[in-house]
Design brief:
- This protein has 228 residues and is mainly α.
- 74% of the residues lie in helices and 0% in strands.
- It contains 16 helices and no strands.
- It is globular.
- The two termini are 23 Å apart.
Length: 228
């Protein structure tokens, strides 16, 4: 762990901290929504630790609140988490590492840890970003969910407080440096077009999943492919 900390410079550490804090703030909203919809107090914190995937958890709770069956809600949440398959293929094996670390790393895989890791220029920094961000998420997301559950329905209105805007704003800020590459800009624009075109017709979460196909329409530059 000491060697991993040694790869983090000030800018990278600041990005990880801001990302984890933003996700923790969204966790407050998630926990409050769970309790407001009649779920037990312990549910958001336990689900946050065991699932550790905000989008699928929000989908699950949203479907349950709308009267859907737990089985259907679980299947939709699993489908939303199918994006982790290309994530796992994109992360270099040296970042995940063999043995028991691979099992832990698989649990820590999320949008933020993958984005931060792949944005780094070399494997040591990728490993540091992935593990520190993943562990930070494991702390901040359940902590925010528990805080929100304890707060009850006081902060369940995410639109009024602007909590729903924090997550996309942080992800956009992390993506901006990579948009200097033409191929990356093409992939982002194609993915955005796919998501916007399918949002009116598909359930929440699926448009984002379909947007991943933009990666195949705009392959990464040769240098980045070799790095991956």
């Amino acid at each position: 762990m000491r060697s991993i900390w040694g790869t983090l410079d000030r800018d990278l550490l600041r990005g990880i901290v801001l990302t984890c804090l933003a996700v923790g703030a969204i966790g407050v909203s998630y926990g409050a929504i769970c309790v407001a919809e009649g779920l037990p107090l312990w549910f958001p914190a336990v689900a946050a630790v065991l699932v550790l995937a905000a989008s699928s958890e929000f989908l699950f709770v949203g479907m349950i609140a709308a009267g859907g069956s737990p089985v259907a809600a679980t299947l939709v949440a699993l489908l939303a988490n199918a994006r982790h398959l290309p994530y796992g293929l994109a992360i270099p094996p040296q970042v995940i590492q063999p043995g028991w670390r691979r099992v832990v790393a698989s649990h820590l895989m999320n949008d933020e840890s993958v984005v931060l890791a792949l944005a780094q220029p070399d494997v040591p920094r990728q490993r540091g970003a992935y593990w520190v961000c993943g562990l930070g998420m494991l702390i901040c997301w359940p902590a925010g969910a528990m805080l929100g559950a304890l707060a009850g329905d006081v902060v369940h209105d995410t639109e009024a407080l602007g909590l729903d805007a924090m997550f996309p704003a942080v992800i956009l800020a992390l993506m901006l440096p990579a948009l200097r590459e033409r191929a990356m800009r093409g992939a982002v624009l194609a993915g955005a077009a796919i998501a916007l075109a399918t949002t009116p017709f598909l359930p929440a979460g699926l448009p984002v999943l379909l947007a991943l196909f933009a990666v195949f329409l705009n392959p990464a530059p040769k240098g980045r492919q070799e790095a991956l």
